[in-house]
Amino acid sequence: MVRPVQGGAPRGSAILDLGCGGGEPIARYLIDQGLHVTGVDRDAAMIALARTRFPREAWIHADMRTVEIDAKFEGVIAWSSLTQLSRADQAAMAGRAAHWLKPGGRLLFSAEADRDSASSDYRSGSLYHADLGPADYSAALAARGLIEMAHVAEDPACNGAGVWLVRKP
């Protein structure tokens, strides 16, 4: 189980939620902690729902792989959202997250166990689900200058998903 890390984002910090869906439960939790959320999701209906639920926050209908955001954030979260991407796109997201983070900012993401290592991307016709292995994630993060603070390979509290907490120096 991932334990809380001292020195979390202070109230008022800006957090980027990649694959935010309708804002439940992640964005709600962050907002309840006094954080400001910018959410990105490629599903227009989910963004509309998030805007209805949390009209004071920023919601962007876009693909996380290509969205242009000029702002910098104290935190970036991608909870169960990277698994819909190809392995190459998952690795590239480390660079995008590094770009969006302020120095000292943190990236928190989860990655479920790869159930179909033969599949290369979501266009194969079946429900796509793939993840880089832990070593590949670690290499992608390190290549972008990010520092792994904590990693749990298969967290039972997260249905066996891997969980990473990373910091930008």
TrEMBL record:
Keyword flag DNA damage: no
Organism of derivation: Sphingomonas alpina
GO biological process, one term: methylation
Lineage: superkingdom: Bacteria
Keywords: Methyltransferase, Transferase
Residues annotated as domain Methyltransferase: 15-105
GO MF assignments: methyltransferase activity
Lineage of the species this protein comes from: Bacteria, Pseudomonadati, Pseudomonadota, Alphaproteobacteria, Sphingomonadales
InterPro entries per the UniProt record, alphabetical: Methyltransf_25 (IPR041698), SAM-dependent_MTases_sf (IPR029063)
Protein name: Class I SAM-dependent methyltransferase
